[in-house]
Amino acid sequence: MRAGLVKVAGGFHALDAHARWTMTAAAEAHHATGVTIAVHLELGTGALDVLDLLCGQLGVPPQRVVLGHLNRSPDLVLHRQAAESGCCLAFDGPSHAHHATDWRMPDAVRALADAGFGDRLLLGADTTTAAARSVGGGPGMPYLLRRVRPRLVRAVGEDLVARVLTQNPGRAFAAEWR
């Protein structure tokens, strides 16, 4: 059995020694296997530090890095800077009422798509299985497809939403096992 991805967590606004250690191990795993590294950004922060470490110092190709939970920090400038690196941007966790998610996410997706980064966008529900409710008790994947998808279609069009839900994750998580 082979892993489909390696997931690590960053720190809040910065990377502590533990996050640097686990990301170094994730980079080693990537170099040995070719799998994508998915990064939990604490409240959506620290993305640029993660990219500096993984892609800059540790040599992981940016297209093999997925930055998660960007919806939790609706900083459009930061989103664009991260997208410029070539990494994938995951807006995962809609309907968490205590985060700036549903009502700001379409604007962030539209801004990134308008800037030419539509091929780097991913959408998720912060769950472990298709039927699961999201971490923290949110409604999970059914809500994503039933409520968030139509809202995104209105904001950016069916074509882009279809790519965000199919082609982009297919490319981001494609196995490059070594």
TrEMBL record:
Cited InterPro entries: Metal_Hydrolase, Phosphotriesterase
N6-carboxylysine PTM positions: 7
Domain of life from the UniProt record: Bacteria
Alphabetized Gene3D superfamilies for the sequence: Metal-dependent hydrolases
Keyword Cell wall biogenesis/degradation recorded: no
GO molecular function: hydrolase activity
A Pfam family that the UniProt record links to this protein: PTE
Keywords, alphabetical: Hydrolase, Metal-binding
PANTHER family: PHOSPHOTRIESTERASE-RELATED, PHOSPHOTRIESTERASE-RELATED PROTEIN
Family from the record: Belongs to the metallo-dependent hydrolases superfamily. Phosphotriesterase family.
This protein's name: Metal-dependent phosphotriesterase family hydrolase
Organism, as annotated: Streptomyces africanus
